[in-house]
Every structure is written in C-alpha cells, then in structure tokens.
Design goal:
Layout lengths: L1 E14 L4 E14 L3 E5 L6 H9 L6 E6 L2 E2 L7 E4 L11 H7 L8 H14 L15 H14 L4 E5 L7 H18 L2 E6 L2 H7 L2 E6 L4 E7 L11 H26 L5 H9 L9
Parallel strand pairs: 3-8, 3-9, 6-7, 7-8
Antiparallel strand pairs: 1-2, 1-4, 4-5, 9-10
Bound molecules: adenosine-5'-triphosphate (ATP).
Length: about 280
C-alpha cells in the first residue's frame, strides 16, 4: 500500500539580500510503501535534509506535492515523527518527562501519558534511566530517548535525519540493531537520511541515491539481502561497491567545488574509501 508520494518536488532557496536563487533539486519523484524502510543517500549538500524537511512539513517545496496517503502535506503533523542528528532534549526534564512532554498536547491523562512513555522507553532499553537527566546520559542514550519521544506520539512515519551521525562507531552499531528491532516491532514506515553507504545497505529495503549539481535522484537500489545483514558477506560488499562506484564522480564534484585549489585526488580517495562515507564534513 502506498504511503508517501513525492511528486515533481523542487526546492529553490532565494537570497533576498543578494537577489540570487539556488535550486537544490527539481523533479524529485518517489513513492514509498507502508512499512517500507527507505534510505536517502548522497553526498553532502545534495538536499537529503531539505527533502526530509519537506516531507516533515518543516519546509515548503517550491514546486510539486508530497502526500501522506491521500492527504497533501501542508505543515508538520502527528502522522510524522522526526529524529534529528542532535537529540535536543530539554535538560531540565528527566528522561520520562522529556518523552511525556510531547504527549501533553494529546488529550490523555498524565497516567496514560506516562504509561505510553514507559512502554517506548522500554522498547529502546532505557527503563532503568527514566529518572535520569540528559546530562547523565551518553550520546547514544540521548538519541534513544529522542527515538522513544518520537515513537510515543505514535506517528505512522518516522523521519530520521542522520540520527547516528554524531555517534562513535560502537554506539552507532548498537543503535543499528535497535532501530531494526523497533522497525520490526512497530511496522513503521521509515525514511532515513544518511551519507554512510554501509549504514544504508545494513538497514534499508531500498536505497535512493541522490546526486548534486544539479540535485536529484540518480538511481534507486532495492536491497534484497536477508536480515540480519552481514557487512562481510560478498553480496553486501558488492552492493556497497556498486553504489560507491556510481557516486565516486559525485563526491569528486562536491570536493572539487568546496576545496577549490586544495583538492587532491589521491588524498580524496584515501579519505573516502575506508569507511564509505560520502563526503561527510567536507
Ligand atoms: N535555509 C537555507 N537557505 C539557503 N540554502 C540552504 C538552506 N538550507 C539548505 N540550503 C542549501 O541547500 C543545499 C542542500 O542542503 P541539505 O542540508 O539539504 O543537504 P544534505 O544532503 O542534507 O547535506 P548534509 O549531508 O551535509 O547534511 C546545500 O547547498 C545548502 O547549503
């Protein structure tokens, strides 16, 4: 069943002071099924976050429409929960209070809100930390609170914008397992932004590769590997390499543009072949 339809979407930013405009992408067409896990993958600046923000209703498309079911997106809504790279928890509230905070707008009793929050905190394995404050938690734990907070609102769709981008490798790997578990348990539709090829192959049903200058969808890759996936398996490595080779030119384009005279092909290939990150922090 179709869940999200992105039709002919374009985004152009206007700079009113300099009277210039910049089109991030145009003609984005994408259909996502109910319960599907889709990754938006691409080099820095290709517009992954912009597209996710348009689906979230936090930003407006310059042209085209986004529909959730039959309803056109015109702003944020409770049918979509967003998880950002930074957890953005309220430091003066406990873990439990942070999760129940968003539920206050829903017309449910305090007890029911707490029951719901506890249920999702259990799902992300934080039952022991309900009374802790954000500064007492690790980065990975904070991100799990923010996932629980989004899930407690019971959105149909979870929009995740590089949720593990700021975490160390071990924590990231643990959260990959958690997010797969959550997805299997809840059956949510997930749109997941990343520039990490391995992460996208590990998690998604389908990878939507985006390129830049001009921005758009380059290719879609269905990932038909059985779960749990093994990054060491030949099929996994083959898919990573197929994606990487397709995008090598894209990354080079971005790096050349951003580094100008400092660009060095040898250095670039060393930087990006080891972890298959596509132009992070350049
Ligand atoms: N509010 C804004 N005004 C002007 N330009 C913007 C605005 N937001 C984003 N951009 C530009 O749009 C382009 C796409 O940005 P976006 O953050 O969506 O890319 P991304 O693919 O998510 O990158 P990254 O992986 O680095 O987060 C960039 O060139 C960025 O500078």
């Amino acid at each position: 069943m179709t869940h999200v339809v992105i039709k002919d979407v374009e985004k152009t930013f206007y700079n009113k002071v300099e009277k210039t405009s910049f089109t991030v992408f145009n003609n984005i067409n994408l259909t996502i099924k109910k319960g599907e896990f889709v990754s938006l993958l691409g080099p820095s600046g290709c517009g992954k976050s912009t597209l996710l923000n348009i689906v979230a209703g936090l930003d407006k498309a310059s042209n085209g429409v986004v529909k959730i079911g039959t309803k056109e997106v015109s702003g944020p809504g409770s049918d979509r929960g967003v998880v950002f790279q930074e957890a953005a928890l309220m430091p003066w509230l406990t873990v439990l209070e942070n999760v129940t905070f968003g539920l206050k707008k829903q017309k449910i009793s305090k007890e029911a809100a707490e029951k719901k929050a506890l249920e999702y905190l259990k799902l992300v394995h934080l039952s022991k930390f309900v009374g802790s404050y954000p500064h007492e938690l690790s980065g990975g734990m904070k991100q799990r609170v923010s996932i629980a907070r989004a899930l407690a609102m019971d959105p149909e769709i979870l929009l995740m914008d590089e949720p593990f981008g700021a975490l160390d490798e071990q924590t990231r790997s643990m959260l990959h397992k958690e997010v797969q578990f959550i997805w299997e348990q809840t059956g949510k539709t997930i749109i997941f932004v990343t520039h990490n090829i391995r992460e996208s192959v590990l998690l998604s049903d389908r990878i939507v590769l985006m390129g830049t200058r001009p921005g758009g969808i380059i290719q879609e890759f269905p990932v038909n590997l059985p779960r749990p996936r093994k990054p060491s398996s030949p099929e996994f490595i083959k898919l990573e390499e197929d994606i990487m080779s397709l995008l090598a030119g894209e990354i080079e384009k971005v790096m050349k543009e951003e580094m100008g005279d400092d660009y060095n092909t040898k250095k670039a290939s060393l930087l990006y072949s080891s972890n298959r990150n596509m132009g992070e922090h350049i």
